[in-house]
Amino acid sequence: LDEGMTGLKSAAVAHGQVIPQARLVQIEGQMLSRLIQVQLLLQKATAADKAEGANKSGLQLSNLLERAGSQEALNRQMKALGMTPDELRSKINQETTAQVVLTRELNVTATDAEAKQFYDDTNHLANFEQPEMVNVRHIFLLTLDPVTHEPLTMEQQQNKHKQAEDILKRARAGEDFATLVKQYSEDPGAKEDNKEISLARGNPGTPPEIEAAAFSLTNNQVSDVIATSVGYDIVKLYSKTPAKKSEYSPVADKIKNFLIAQKTEKLAPAYLDKLQKDADIQILDADLKAAVAAAAANAAAGTSEK
Question: pLDDT, tens digit, for every residue of 19-39?
Fold first, then answer.
């Protein structure tokens, strides 16, 4: 519990946030209740539950690693939260296994018919819309110092812009764009992989100037020099895919998992409450006991409002 609270406070500090004391007490109560529930559920885990939990935790870790960009970056993030990679793996594995046990104990399932009904419901159309996509390559010239991240001098920025204009002329004259990327781009990923990049319209991770230019191009067209807050970009469009609704088959399992999660959320509180009472859990620390009671009261109030 102390490790979890320390990690929470560290994450808040890293984002420049301060959590009010009253909120910290509430979170601590919720966190302790969850830790108790996980341990009680793990006592009921079968070999099959553990295998499925390990599989799901592996997928979660892969997603975390992909979002972090590298194992080194993920390790840095964990260090900032006061957690080692092994502790992260253990925590995720326990959580996923406990969730598998809970779903099995509640006998929650979702049928193909329920999933198809959800998919066909017009109220859920936005859930299955694939945004317009473009495949591009780009040449990026940085206008910040790569070490200090301070802006280059005005003269250096002007030289970068002139270099970008010269590269643009060569690209439009017919030189191979992939070769120009490899020679000149200061984006390490673009330079090393030299592969086409897929961009989805509306992705918050894409600078708006780049998105506007990329989606305005036609196939094999090269953009003008695009100025961003960190440099100059030149984009070449290779293909464009219009927005469309996803086919049912690729999303069927995700829909079923969502429906199972919905059903579990509705049934879980009563089951977990009984599980904890049957185990006769005693919280001896008076402050923690009060925090758990307050968290339970808040949860009950929220359920009644729904």
Answer: 898 889 889 999 999 999 999
